[in-house]
Structures are given as structure tokens and as C-alpha cells.
Amino acid sequence: MISEICLGTMTFGKQNTERDAHAQLSYAVDAGVNFIDTAEMYPVPTEAARQGKTDEYIGTWLRSRRREDVVLATKVSGRSDRITWLPRGDNETPRVKRKHIMESVEHSLSRLQVDHIDLLQIHWPDRYVSLFGASPYDVANVNDDDVPFEEQLRAFDDLIRQGKVRHLGVSNETSWGVCEFARIAATSGMPKLVSIQNSYSLLTRGAFETDLAEVCSPSNANVGLLAYSPLAGGALTGKYLGESPPEGARFTMFPGYMERFNKSATREATAEYARVAGEYGLSPAALALAFVRSRWFVTSTIIGATSMEQLGENIDAFNVEMTQECLDDIDAVYKKYKDPAIS
């Protein structure tokens, strides 16, 4: 069983120190959060010199906690031309081949100082897909050396049998990918997916609400959504709506980072959602988080923060109950600005 809030940790080691990380982890867990999400490539934005720092900070914090009280999720990176420095054999390109998954898990267990991972996720598909605001899918870009779904599942099956991993999930995955994993698991007896970690927010709804929601529903694949970027990288807090970007904020510190959430159309949509929030006496962030929480297909919402004040406000937002009138007003804005971050 996991809490409806998951603490995202990708700022640990970049924007947050080890002391900051420990304070956030303790505050969240003491507030009832039992679910923590990390990844082998963190912190973000990624760089070779800091890779793995996030895990290390979580590992030192875990020394003072009972392992059984925490549900720990991490992710293994797939094919990438940007993070070729991830540890893979003899300087091999990161993939999700069986040997790479096994190696990634050993490194993660060591950094986290644990003997098992509760949820191991494939960070993104090891095949061509249209992600992160990229152009539409084009068959001309299909790779001819994709890692077979069966090979990936076999690696997870072995890890689960060894007791090093408890459950399997995916991230940034498509309906086709979920269906293939589900089909092969059903016919082979290998482990099934329990979760999908995809971007979902007021600015990125349609990609999940249509076919993925059907595929992942309890009557079909029965895969729970772990919604990441519910605040669209911080854009939905409204802090970027002024003429001057705030100092120390992510989009200010890392130009071009999550640029899809800082386009003119997304700013216009964010302003409209902020207006709706004000009409109901809510902060823009509280409206955005409460909306994600209200969706039937969301199992847990991944929140992150760079300050304790932000973290407290984000956790408090989960006490907000959405009225139908408020949801109707949100939908009115959505019809005008439909998925501006992915269009």
C-alpha cells in the first residue's frame, strides 16, 4: 500500500543539499508519506559529476529509519544520446538490455544502502517514441535494434525471484507499450506491470485521459498512474507569470529546461487556471494538485520541492476537496487551452 503522495527527489544533489534532503524526507514521512521516488540518473538536470547523489542522500537518511516503513521506487534509464556517462559495462550506451538492467540495480542498491527495491521502473522506452513535447510520431524514425519486451520482462522476473526487486513499473510509456507488457506477462507467467509514471497535469491531460486511461483501467491492464510534474515543473504555481522570472527558480537557473511548460500558450493557460483558483480561495498550486488527486486513475501524485515551505504547501493541498463547480470551471479552461504543453 502506498500513500496518495509520493515524494519526488530529483532536486537532491543539485538544488538541495544532503541536509535539505534529509529534512524533506523526514517531514514528508512524518506527515504520512511512505512512498519515495528516485532514479539512477538523478539529480536533474543531469551531469556526470553528480549522477547518483540523489540515491546517496536517500541512503544516508534511511540509516535512521525502518526500511519496512518506506516504499522505495527507482528507475533504470533506457537508450539516450545525452547520458552516455551512466555506468554500463565497458562504457556501453545506456539501454535496457538484460545485463544493463541487472547492472543498474546493483549500483542502485549500493547507493541506496538497501537490499531490495520495492518498485523498479523503466524510465523511458528503449525504442523510438514521441516524448517531452517532441514532434508527432513518425514511422521513419523507428529503430531496428529495440530491446525486445520479452528481454526486459525476463530481467525483471529474475530480479524479483532473487528478492532484489518487488514490483515492475514503466515511465513515459505509451498505450502500445503497456499493452505489450501486459500481453507478454499474461502469456508467459512473468511479472505484470503495476504502475506507469507519466506526466499528468492541468497542462498535459489528453495523453493519458484518452486511450491510456482505458488501457490502464482496473478492468483491463490494471496499471496505476503515478503522476509526475503535476505542477508542470513549477509553472502551475503561477510564479513565472510576472514580467521577470523569479531568482533561484528552476526555469531561471536552467534555461531551456522543460521549455514546453514555459511557452506563451502554456503561460496563458496557467493564468486562466490561476484565475479559477482565486475564485475558489485556493492558491494556483493547490488547485493543480487537488485536480490531479481527484482523477480516478491516479494512484499517487509525485510532488517535489526545493524548500520546506514549498513542501508543506504541496502536502497541505491534498486536503482540498474539489467541488463539481470548480471542476466544471477547470474543464472550461481546458476546452480553450487543450494540452498547450504538448501541442
Number of strands: 8
Strand content: 5-15%
Task: Tell me the name of the CATH homologous superfamily of the domain at 5-199.
Answer: NADP-dependent oxidoreductase domain
CATH class identity of the domain at 5-199: Alpha Beta
**Major sheet attributes:** 8 strands, parallel, barrel
**Could you give the distance between the termini?**
36 Å
What is the overall number of helices? 12
CATH architecture of the domain at 5-199: Alpha-Beta Barrel
Q: What integer value in Å does the Rg equal? A: 19 Å
In the CATH scheme, what's the topology name of the domain at 5-199?
TIM Barrel
Model regions low in confidence, pLDDT < 50 over at least 5 residues: none
Order of helices and strands: EHEHEHEHEHEHHEHHHEHH
Mean pLDDT, all residues: 92
From the helix content, strand content and strand pairing, which structural class follows?
A: alpha/beta
**How is the largest sheet built, in terms of strand order?**
1-2-3-4-5-6-7-8
Helix content: 25-40%
Shape: globular
How would you explain this protein's 3D organization?
α9 runs antiparallel to α12. With 343 residues, the protein is of the alpha/beta class. The model has no long low-confidence stretch (mean pLDDT 92). It contains twelve helices and eight strands. The protein has an eight-stranded parallel β-barrel with strand order 1-2-3-4-5-6-7-8, surrounded by six helices. The protein is 37% helix and 13% strand. The chain has a domain of 195 residues: NADP-dependent oxidoreductase domain (TIM Barrel).
